[in-house]
Amino acid sequence: MSRAVVTPLRRPERSTSARQPARPRKTVALGNAAGPDSLAARLFLLAYDPERGRLTARSKLGKLLRAAILVDLQLSGHLDDDNGRARLTTRASAPVDPVVGGVLAELRAVGPRRWRRWIDRRGGVTVRQVRDELARAHLIRVEPYRVLGLFPSARITLRHPLVRRHILQSARDTLRPSRLVSRVDLRDAAIVVLASTADLRTVVTKDQRTRHKDRLAQLAVRVGPVVPALKKSLQQAQASAGG
């Protein structure tokens, strides 16, 4: 009696692409939070030290944020440099960020002045305005309290630390020697240069400032006249504080 030959069932062959699916591109997950667009808001987040749980460089923060807003206005085409003065252009569109728009309104009311004049104005007000906008965007939490039970202050915490980490990484990437200075994104360059000028070590450490001194100088040239104006403003403030 002959035996029946049982042929094992074969699974249908998969194509090469099916056996080796293409890997998706690596993306940075920021959760449901979108990072802020304005340079001042980004620098405010970077001034926050996650390890200490507080803002750093408070005495310089007002000038730093004002300088960041001026760079924002220059990069967006609202301001030009006119022999060391900030001059309004004919661009009609208003900035999306209300704090940036407020500074633009100041310039419209007064007219062309040296960049440093605008850096020195209303620093404390600007810090509070940027902080409040970040709170409204749910990127930080602001909790009022009193120091020693007497002096009003505010405790700030990050709601989305990954947003800050992504901004920091993008800024620090501009220091990589493999990237041509001429090809670096100007907004990222502005963040790292302004932070270095203000000695904001949560962004650029002392060692990084030394190692990348020449590159930072090259990036500063690209960012424009606000950088030397910020440096002079900070130097004058330090000299005044020293007596």
TrEMBL record:
Region (Disordered): 1-26
Annotated membrane topology: Peripheral membrane protein
Principal localisation: Golgi
Cellular component GO terms held in the UniProt record: cytoplasm; endomembrane system
Xref: Pfam families: GPP34 (PF05719)
Transmembrane intervals: none
Keywords from the UniProt entry: Golgi apparatus, Lipid-binding, Membrane
GO MF annotations in UniProt: phosphatidylinositol-4-phosphate binding
Cellular compartment(s): Golgi apparatus membrane
InterPro entries per UniProt: GPP34-like, GPP34-like_sf
Name of this protein: GPP34 family phosphoprotein
Organism (species): Kribbella speibonae
